[in-house]
Specification:
Elements: H1 2-19, E1 31-36, E2 53-54, E3 63-64, E4 77-81, E5 88-90, E6 97-99, E7 118-120, E8 128-145, E9 160-166, E10 173-178, E11 185-205, E12 212-214, E13 216-222, E14 227-231, E15 235-236, E16 243-252, E17 257-266, E18 282-284, H2 287-292, E19 294-295, E20 304-313, E21 320-329, E22 336-342, E23 345-347, E24 352-361, E25 369-375, E26 380-387, E27 390-391, E28 394-399, E29 402-411, E30 415-423, E31 429-430, E32 433-436, E33 445-446, E34 448-449, E35 451-452, E36 455-456, E37 459-463, E38 470-476, E39 491-497, E40 504-512, E41 517-526, E42 529-531, E43 542-544, E44 557-565, E45 572-580
Parallel strand pairs: 22-34, 23-37
Antiparallel strand pairs: 1-21, 2-3, 4-8, 5-6, 7-12, 8-11, 8-13, 9-10, 9-11, 14-20, 15-20, 16-19, 16-21, 17-18, 17-20, 22-24, 24-30, 25-29, 25-32, 26-27, 26-30, 28-29, 31-37, 32-33, 35-36, 38-39, 39-42, 39-43, 40-41, 40-44, 44-45
């Protein structure tokens, strides 16, 4: 019992440690490390999934490829503004025309296809194409091409044009002008490279008897590309499945560069539908951050894995990856786990009682489960826990987005752990979880979702529409006593905002009974959002400590709470009374 008491006392700090990623290095004797000390062996990469990186400039390292031979506009965003009539096509009504959107799609100018074109009809001198390169580049040359790049298409070429460039789309300067273009693919070389994110192309002259066609506008430069991806081949750690832990990188970063790391896992050597999707990207922005690393959130235990790194630059430099470490355990918390929740559909913003069923199998070598952590889309409260139908002792700590449940004894019994809890959902959401053993708390083991015909079994969908954008405005405690005795010294106002598609002004104000202003608790804009829970314990509700806007404690009495939200229908106002007592 004493051990369980200590476990209960440490549960809150344990829950916080989980969210802080629990240190940077393996903390149990059975931990192992999969290491790549050099990327000189190009056979490690999946060539068909690797692009725009350089493995030869600095042997053993991964760098972004340089931009002098790559078209920087391939990942750009294009827009076009016609100054005359756009291209037309026959309308649904006889003898009418409508804009031909197929010939107006500006993204065709950056698709690397000389046979997909944008058409510019006659009387369109001054038509403007803007290119957003998505990052600041050192630009040195441009190309503009007509249909197919063939000489036979020259009559449809732009006869004269001007390029503009700048880091701000509203303040670009002229960098090149062509007064007499004779080429089906025209290349413009700049005398000096320019620093730019935005490129402008203006049509200055076109044929008097033929419309203008452009298939591609290409941009080349110096420095490194804005983005490149290195993907490994499928690899394995041991013949048996393992519990993956943390990833860390030996990497160097220059200004405005970063690396996104992702991983996927499976029990078959060939990637198929049984594999996990790519994990949520872990972003590293500095050498120190990459060295500390982060916990992997992948399907486990699994035998095979594949990782990818997306190198990115918003400037002219490149990050450099020198090595990689993935920590894992061959000893498992449980041999297998899967979770489902019921019911799978609940009314929106209505108190609901749900059951989380966690199926677990163990072997003699399994560590066992000491703690279950369930991520929640809204604040939730555990009501009971049972193992194979028999109630078991537990301790529970709630936070706005987690239920952390510790058990009196390590669970090593194969079967179903059932957690009954209550919650109120603003929208559909998933309840993923991890199981933890206290001797390897650095490495929680992810639980699989039970796969059903409709998707992951731990997803709950909501149905119905709230009658008001302000739902369930509550005041707790009420009355409250702001006398400094540590009991009910403040009250929490919480509620949910529903059915709001664009941010709307939200105000929370206290008045006295005569209507005089006392305190402004909040003035913000909000989308659909639950403002629930005591902010002193991590919730997102609002606290009133009984003071006015000058910091003076108000007199005892009855006050008015006003919660107002502007909406397209004119807005909604909820008013409730708050009692201040001593």
């Amino acid at each position: 019992m004493r051990a369980f008491t200590l476990l209960v006392l440490s549960l809150l700090s344990f829950s916080k440690a989980l969210s802080l990623e629990l240190g940077s290095q393996p903390m149990s004797p059975d931990s192992l490390v999969y290491a790549v000390g050099s990327f000189a062996d190009t056979a490690r990469r999946a060539a068909d999934l690797t692009s725009d990186v350089d493995l030869t400039a600095e042997p053993g390292k991964i760098l972004l490829a340089r931009g002098d031979s790559a078209n920087l506009a391939l990942r750009a965003r294009f827009s076009i503004t016609y100054v005359g009539p756009p291209p037309q096509t026959a309308g649904s009504i006889p003898n009418t025309t409508v804009p031909d959107t197929a010939k107006m799609n500006p993204q065709k100018l950056g698709d690397n296809d000389l046979f997909s074109v944008v058409s510019i009809p006659l009387s369109n001198v001054g038509t403007y194409v803007r290119i957003d390169l998505q990052a600041i580049r050192r630009v040195s040359r441009f190309q503009v091409a007509v249909l197919g790049g063939f000489g036979s298409s020259k009559k449809q070429r732009p006869l004269a044009f001007t390029y503009y460039a700048g880091t701000d789309s509203l303040r670009m300067t002229k960098v090149y002008q062509e007064l007499d273009n004779q080429d089906s693919i025209h290349t413009a070389y700049l005398s000096e490279p320019v620093i730019a994110r935005f490129i402008g192309f203006v049509l200055d002259k076109q044929s008097t008897n033929s419309f203008t066609v452009i298939s591609e506008i290409r941009v080349f430069g110096e420095g490194y590309l804005a983005e490149g991806t290195y993907t490994s081949k499928v690899d394995t750690t041991l013949p048996a499945p393992v519990n993956f832990g943390r990833v860390s990188l030996d990497a160097d970063f220059s200004t405005a560069t970063f690396i996104d790391f992702q991983m996927r896992t499976g029990n078959k050597k060939t990637v198929d539908s049984s594999w996990s999707p790519w994990s949520t990207a872990i972003t590293f922005r500095s050498t120190a951050e990459a060295a500390v690393g982060a916990r992997l959130n992948v399907f486990e235990p699994r035998r095979y894995f594949q990782y990818r790194m997306r190198l990115q630059s918003a400037d002219l430099g490149t990050p450099k990856v020198n090595g990689l470490h993935i920590a894992y355990q061959k000893t498992l918390v449980a041999d297998s786990t899967s979770a489902a929740i019921s019911p799978s559909d609940v009314p929106v913003l209505t108190p609901a009682r749900l059951t989380y069923n966690l199926s677990m199998t163990f072997s003699p070598t399994s560590q066992g489960v000491d703690t279950l952590v369930i991520t929640t889309p809204s604040p939730s409260l555990v009501r009971s826990v049972s193992l194979n139908g028999t109630p078991i002792p537990y301790s529970f700590v709630a936070s706005p987005d987690q239920m952390t449940i510790a058990f009196a004894q390590t669970i090593k019994t194969t079967g179903i752990l059932s957690v009954e809890f209550t919650t109120k959902l603003l929208r559909s959401g998933a309840f993923p979880s991890v199981v933890v053993n206290k001797f390897s708390a650095w490495n929680p083991q992810s639980v699989d979702p039970l796969r059903t015909s409709s998707g992951d079994g731990w997803v709950v969908t909501t149905s119905g529409i709230p009658s008001s954008p302000l739902v369930d405005v509550r005041i707790d405690p009420n009355p409250f006593t702001p006398n400094g005795d540590g009991k009910n010294d403040a009250t929490v106002i919480d509620f949910s905002v529903a059915n709001v598609e664009v941010p709307k002004p939200l105000k929370i104000t206290i008045f006295d009974l005569s209507g005089r202003f006392v305190r402004r608790l909040a003035s913000l804009t909000s989308l659909t959002n639950p403002f629930l829970g005591d902010p002193r314990t991590g919730g997102r509700g609002f606290l009133w400590d009984g003071r006015d806007d000058n910091g003076v404690i108000v007199r005892p009495g009855v006050y008015l709470l006003s919660v107002s939200l502007e909406s397209d229908g004119g807005g909604v106002l909820v008013t409730k009374t708050i009692i201040v007592a001593y």
